[in-house]
Amino acid sequence: MSDQGFGARPMSHAVFRVARLHKALAGALLRESGLHPGQELALMTLWSQGPQRLVDLVEAVDSDAPSMTRSVARMERAGLVQRRPSPTDRRAVIVEATPASLELRAKVEGAWAELERLTVGSLSAEQQAEILENLGLLEANLSAVDRP
């Protein structure tokens, strides 16, 4: 795809296009499980790390509190997670995956394996390592920016 109209901003445009395509593909692969993109990240975190405070889940999946709160509420209505007050901090909420969510685990892990396979395509191990290194550099650049 051409960067026509984006002038001297080809890197930002390329990152935007790749992220948009990746998210759309993830959504299509997750559709069978009934999850929206991002919800699988929360569930995978809960499956692997166990129950945790909502604030810790937000950090683990690199989300924001309002988005995660809405996502957890939707998953709770679907019976995939439950929330309960923290026994040690009245202000905190503990989020836990339910046994019903485990029925989705194979589908979610399969979708992510397929997403990885399609993303990598025919890239060699060396190319993959180089891309990961360069993405890490871009992430470091963007993380260092003071946000308004």
From TrEMBL:
This protein's name: MarR family winged helix-turn-helix transcriptional regulator
Lineage, broadest ranks: Bacteria, Bacillati, Actinomycetota, Actinomycetes, Micrococcales
Annotated Pfam families: MarR
Organism of origin: Georgenia faecalis
The entry's keywords: DNA-binding, Transcription, Transcription regulation
Domain of life: Bacteria
Every HTH marR-type domain range: 8-140
